[in-house]
Design a protein that fits this description.
The protein has 278 residues and is α+β, with helices and mostly antiparallel strands. The protein has three domains: 10-166, GAF domain (Beta-Lactamase); 169-222, no CATH class; 231-272, Arc Repressor Mutant, subunit A (Orthogonal Bundle). 43% of the residues lie in helices and 17% in strands. The protein has eleven helices and nine strands.
């Protein structure tokens, strides 16, 4: 039984995979875990690039022939322009979680399957992939699809968070809000306490641009810590307190860490109202 649908050539698939190498490396463990949950119920797990080309695929050996015949296989093109309304293509066009159940597909050849999909955005907010779980089982109910859809969304958010953390090594990653939809609302804060990165959900929550770089902004300005001291005095006090905490209250050691003399540190502590025990 020959696979239907459009496919890219092997060389193009290899080039696309190379372009997504960092994302795929982080996503593979998440895909394996998701497949461990849904694979034995007759489902396949797929990850596509931003254009709907299948990059990664998981299914049981017993289901492989069926999914290959359906075109649910690496290199297959599941964009809306190629297949009309379908889980992957529609998810990418609308940039939201979708479930396309059987006859909701545009092409008649696809109405035997159900597809649950969620988008994945990169560290700069751009759309980079879609995660899909598809089933060709005739007895798959819409209620079961909703359950799988929740697992797909959770896994997509985990991949998005993983790629965000990897993009900001050495930065403090702050969970910015408890988004009711469970989206990965994360901020990257540098050593100067400036927010220099935000996930798609955090960008939406705090009014950053939907994608691209963001202008650095003090973390305290957007995290609601307006009751603290401001300006250089605030920064100086914070630096002294950190040095004292790290030295266990040893003023001489803290002074060395700050690059100043012990007497100078005592004068600053007195001016800032900091006792020797912090």
């Amino acid at each position: 039984m020959a696979a239907h649908g459009q496919r890219v050539e092997a060389r193009e698939l290899s080039d696309r995979r190379e372009a997504m190498a960092d994302v795929l490396r982080l996503a593979v463990p998440r895909l394996d875990a998701l497949f461990g949950l849904v694979g034995h119920s007759g489902c396949s797990v797929l990850l596509t690039d931003a254009e709907g080309i299948v990059m990664e695929h998981r299914c049981t050996d017993g289901d492989a022939e069926v999914f290959r015949a359906w075109g649910l296989w690496p290199g297959a093109d599941w964009s809306e322009s190629a297949e009309g309304t379908n889980g992957i293509g529609t998810c990418l066009v609308e940039r939201r979680q979708v479930t396309i159940h059987r006859d909701e597909h545009f092409l008649a050849r696809n109405i035997g399957m159900s597809c649950m999909d969620a988008p994945i955005h990169g560290p700069d907010g751009t759309l980079i992939a879609a995660l899909d779980v598809s089933s060709a089982r005739t007895d798959q109910t819409e209620a079961f699809n909703r359950l799988i859809g929740a697992m797909v969304a959770q896994t997509a958010q985990a991949i998005e968070a993983d790629t965000f953390r990897a993009a900001f090594p050495g930065h403090r990653i702050v969970v910015a809000s408890d988004d009711m939809q469970g989206a990965a609302s994360l901020l990257a804060v540098n050593g100067d306490d400036l927010v220099v990165g935000a996930t798609r959900a955090a960008r939406r929550a705090y009014g950053f641009g939907a994608q691209g770089g963001i202008a650095p902004v003090p973390a305290s300005d957007i995290l609601g810590r307006d009751d603290e001291a401001r300006g250089f005095e605030k920064a100086e006090r914070a630096a002294v307190m950190r040095a004292l905490a790290r030295s266990g209250g040893n003023v001489s050691q803290a002074a060395r860490a700050l690059g100043i003399g012990r007497a100078t540190l005592y004068r600053r502590m007195n001016r800032l109202g900091i006792s020797q025990n912090g």
